Description:
By secondary structure, this protein is an all-alpha fold.
Amino acid sequence: MPSSSRRPQVVLAFACVYLCWGATYAAIRIAGEHLAPPLVGAARSILSVAVLVCICFARGTSLRVPSRTAWRLILVGILLMSVNNVLLIWGETLVPSGLSSLIIAMIPIYVAVIETILPSGERLTPRGWIGVFAGAAGMFVLMSPALRTIGSAAANRTAIAGYAILIVAGLVFAIGSILSRRFRFRVDTFVATAWQIGAAGVVNILLTLACGNLRTAHWTASGLAAIAFLSVIGSVVGLSAYTYLLQNVPVTKVATYAFVNPAIAVIIGAALFGERLAPAELAGMALILVAVATVIGSRMPLGSPPSDPLLEVPIEE
């Protein structure tokens, strides 16, 4: 338990992780309404890397890493910060931000299942499998309104395409998370993040140029503000708060972000964009959040160190 002297800092850190990361889905939607997904990713990466490099210089931390570590950081960064991010932004142009956050909330379940399949991976307990099946049921219920009328409306076909894109985004993030754990990086958090986001930024810039997104970009104050929020608040502030919590709070409590953030994203989506969930979607939301909590709880004894892949890489979009 944190000491009483650290309690205000712990409360503030939880508030940052919950609110900053919960609000990223709304910011992604705003940015994606004005700019193409690769351009949003490129702009966010450039600003995030600039902030992280300044932090490293201020701390006197060298950005140099061994070449083998560099290539591994680059691979993980491209998966987590480029492929995942671009797909997420694209998916949010087709699916409301609240629903998007619920689909992305399945990432811990994807990680658990993939780890179970891998030869040297951690096996799921019976309780964990219950969570997996509950998550699958929740996903089906969440998508059921669109599935029932998929052949009768273009809007529903668009929603199904968005769901598929978001599921792939989540799977890519899960794979990157597992690789990050298995690579066992021994690098300062800010240095590692700078390398990862920097590599993703290069890929996003190349995608932007190849797709001609700069020529079609519609720069607006709200779009730029959303990118600034994603870069500074979502990435830098959220990551710093998350790292602080891992060092000062039991991991089981830190893990609550995985199912609190989607709930906050749904609330923000309803408040800002008038997004409303149908009864079936509310039921799917409840099933998914309970499933994620069940899977995380089944794989993490109380007070255990943060060695679980569900926690090593934060689910921050």
